[in-house]
Amino acid sequence: MTACKDNLLQSQIISSYQTPSGQRVEILKQSFPSSRKRPVKRVAFIAGLHGNELEGVYICHLLTKHLKELQRTQPKAFLGEIHIYPAVNPQATASGTRLWPFLSIDFNRQFGGSEGNSPAIKCAEELINDLKSSADIVIDFHASNLHLKETPQIRITEGFHKKLIPLGVHCNVDLIWVHPPSPMFKSTLGYNMNQSKVPTLVIETGIALRINQNFSNRILLGMLNLLYYAGVLVTSHPPPPVDHPIITHPSQVIPIHSEHAGLFVGHTDIKKNITKGEIIGEVVNAKSGETLQEVTADESGFLFTVRKHPLVYPGALLGRIAKDIMP
């Protein structure tokens, strides 16, 4: 591992590997040190576990830009440490692919004692060890897949919610979704950091291979608000207050599925006050000109997931509603 200083911003290589073609790839951490000998708290932001999820990479850019300017003008504002891991799967990010290149490995399924000696497993071990030694709070940024658009939200596994919800309400998201535990989460970074008693919030927003500047700016404000709440940043001009998110539990989330194969044509976007029976879209047969399914809201509430990819098949997810949460 190597480190260098650019004024007070520190850049460190936390892991590296050689590709089959001989290229050396490095995973970087950028750090803003505390102005105090003993930092109040240490907060880490991580993005790019999946290379096609660019929203978090852009949020890390916005955060770094803001913090560099704050460091220049108010260096004493940093009472804690801030660490930013802007693209931890750099080759996948460069190519816009979800999986680790060459090996087609899901990097966010290599934590928690995965067996083998692949570069992905080695980097996962070095990354999680660095996070455990560097952070008291971790924010793990994600976007949706190519099919679905998600409102800014935090997803929390039941069992961790009592510790995480008090942090999540400061993040300027629309929704905190507490969902039941599942074996598929046990090899993820977020699950294993929480298991290690390091509170880790998984933020999901937007859609793969896209950047929604409105969502990104909202999350930036939320991250600054969280840093102020944690006492890591203190300035004469704190960020404006953020709205309290909706907190929803498994029984409140209603999925909407396609009943046919065809083209889904959406009639609405993410919507906080959708009413039962309201039209969300339709599934059509392009050959016959028929409307196969009029897709309507099964419940009133918050339509927080909307399908954006038009090709569908029976059972394809078209949206999600968090019900019974309207004022």
Offer a concise description of the structure.
The protein is α+β, with helices and mostly antiparallel strands. Helices cover 23% and strands 33% of the residues. The radius of gyration is 21 Å and the shape is globular.
What does this protein structure show overall?
The protein is an alpha+beta fold and 327 residues long. The chain has helices at residues 54-73, 90-95, 119-134, 161-168, 189-195, 213-229; strands at 2-6, 9-18, 24-32, 42-46, 81-85, 137-142, 148-157, 175-179, 200-206, 246-248, 253-257, 262-266, 271-274, 279-284, 291-296, 301-307, 311-312, 317-323. The chain is built from six helices and 18 strands. The chain starts with a strand and ends with a strand. Strands 1, 2, 3, 4, 5, 6, 7, 8, 9, 10, 11, 13, 16 and 18 form a 14-stranded mixed beta sheet that branches. The longest helix is centred in the first third of the chain and has 20 residues, at 54-73.
Write the layout of secondary structure elements.
Blueprint: E1 2-6, E2 9-18, E3 24-32, E4 42-46, H1 54-73, E5 81-85, H2 90-95, H3 119-134, E6 137-142, E7 148-157, H4 161-168, E8 175-179, H5 189-195, E9 200-206, H6 213-229, E10 246-248, E11 253-257, E12 262-266, E13 271-274, E14 279-284, E15 291-296, E16 301-307, E17 311-312, E18 317-323
Parallel strand pairs: 4-5, 4-6, 6-9, 7-8, 8-10
Antiparallel strand pairs: 1-2, 2-3, 3-5, 7-9, 7-16, 11-18, 12-14, 12-17, 13-16, 14-15, 16-18
Helix pairs in contact: 1-6
